[in-house]
Amino acid sequence: MVKLFSEALGREVEVPDEPERIVSLSPAITEILYRIGLEDRVVGVSFYCNKPPRAREKPRVGSYYKVLYDKVEELEPDLVLTTTGAQRKVLEELASRFTVYPVPLPVTIHGIIDEIKVVGIITGRIREARRLAGESARILGKLEGKLAGVRLYYEIFLGGPVSAGAHSYIEDLFSHLGAETPFSSTRTTWVINPSPEAVKAFNPQVVLYERSPYAEITREKIVKSMEERGLAGLEALRGRLIILEPDTLAHYGPSIFEDTQRIVQDVRRLLS
């Protein structure tokens, strides 16, 4: 066993030298585990773990706020991995039953690279995690300033329309790209029900809309919904609307770096 200090729990956690049965309650952590060669040791995941697609085949044992403890116990994990943020609500209960290590929630794009390394340290896959982190860092480095001066507006439906604020890795990513956004100085993680007046005054050149994984929605419906909320006349909705697949930016696993490469290409093509 190895003792690792957890700031979220305020104490040391004894984790196995080589975890054999891992339950991951974080989609980002699940993707990292797969990409550092631990797919066969993942025995359970959360309802939201969809990357890579093979993760959907694992038993689903909980969400951010609710854990099916009986199902977790049946899987007999020697390590349960969570994140912080919203999952703080279930940390103490989980920790009273299982060996749990909460991985800090990233609030910057470089924090995602740190997260990869932390998962590697916890699971004993340090070399593999550092390799993945290095690959991610190289992609990120090449993307710096690639959208310099471009005005972007990002929106996703999370029970209602939201955009990213300054306390978010998404906004930090846009800043790294050199893009301007309407809520870059709003000191929150999510901007709930973004002000149509603020968005129209900002006049984005491109709108990025991330689809919900739980509802099929067409381009026409997205435009209509935005116009009904007060965004009628926004020029970018007519020809410069990029619809992102679910878990593109809202997912902070390693795939965000490859996905951002594609976003940059799409934005530059629209503006060329």
Mind explaining what this structure looks like?
41% of the residues are buried. The chain folds into two domains: 2-140, Rossmann fold (3-Layer(aba) Sandwich); 152-271, Rossmann fold (3-Layer(aba) Sandwich). A five-stranded mixed β-sheet has the order 9-8-7-10-11. Strands 4-3-5-6 form a four-stranded parallel β-sheet, sandwiched between helices. A two-stranded antiparallel sheet has the order 1-2. By secondary structure, the chain is an alpha/beta fold. The radius of gyration is 20 Å and the shape is elongated. It has nine helices and eleven strands. α4 runs antiparallel to α5 (126-143), α4 packs across α6 (169-177) and α5 packs parallel to α9.
Can you give keywords for this protein?
272 residues; Rossmann fold; four-stranded parallel beta sheet; single chain; 2 domains; alpha/beta; five-stranded mixed beta sheet
Describe the structure concisely for a colleague.
This protein is of the alpha/beta class.
